[in-house]
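(Protein data)
===
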Amino acid sequence: MSHFKTLWTWLKWPLALAILGVLIWRNQEGFRHFARQDKHWGYFGLSFVLATVSIFMTFLRWSWLVRALGFHFPLRNACRLGLMGMAVSYVGPGMVGGDSFKAVSIASGQASRRIVAAATVFLDRILGLLALMWVGALGAFISMPTHRQELHLAARWIFWISSGVGTLGLIALMIPAVTRSPLVSWVSHLPLVGRIFSQLLEGVALYQKRPTVLFFATAIAAVGHVMMCSSLYCCAQGLGGWSPGLIDHCYLTPTAEIIGLIPTPGGVGPQELAIQELYKTFPPDDVGIEVAGQAGFLASLAFRLNTMLIAAVGALFYFAAKSEVNDVQRAESTAA
């Protein structure tokens, strides 16, 4: 396993850049077309504002979840660790992801209940994924793609089933009898996933007396995802050409974000490819499929620039606190 981690450390950025390089080479005509057409810079500015607010809403949500359990965790700490986590997703060595970095960081700052504090990071991620499924399910219900209907039918069912099962699961976990059931105990003892599941369960169980915290946090996450979808839509509008509608982006953006979970740095490469291919399924008859794909790729690059600019702020914290980062990485390696 350690050999695989070392190999992936060296391969993840070359793989991401290789995918981007192929996409740039295939979309040369799109760049030339972009250079000729009028740009709407106000949309780019609005896109950056939406992405920034959406990301800081995730920090607010995490801080709220932690403080609901009685921990002292000011919002400024959540923002600092959250921004550093974004930077780690791009520049962190090894397999240490942004969530792992945040979990170890918050745990190391607590005198007791460290596992519970760390579990809030992964609980926050699960709630964020559930909210993403909510947005994708709603977008899939309203959106009207024009090509590859069989692909979209499968994606719709995935969103609908995932959001339904996830919501029912969240409701069930608010019932003490469920979390103490033999089935849950059996899952907690499974290899690999059992320990993570038991830690998450311990964190979730603490919210059983205040279930509105979790559901309100998920609602906040859904609003943040809609803002992120709107950010990509504004990037496309800023290019001055054709793009799918805002509702369509509430379907295609969650789809691309799920594909972006492929463990390249920050999802670079797979997410841009997904947005390009999804744009190709939406053009009207007067817009060619290849032109639509080029528009999607250019919009995805502008969207990526937004998130990388925000991550650059996290990189300043990351390199300014290098000794703290090294301590966290050693603690993560020991825990692993």
In short: The chain has one domain: 40-89+96-335. Residues 289-320 form the longest helix (32 residues). The chain has a mean pLDDT of 82.
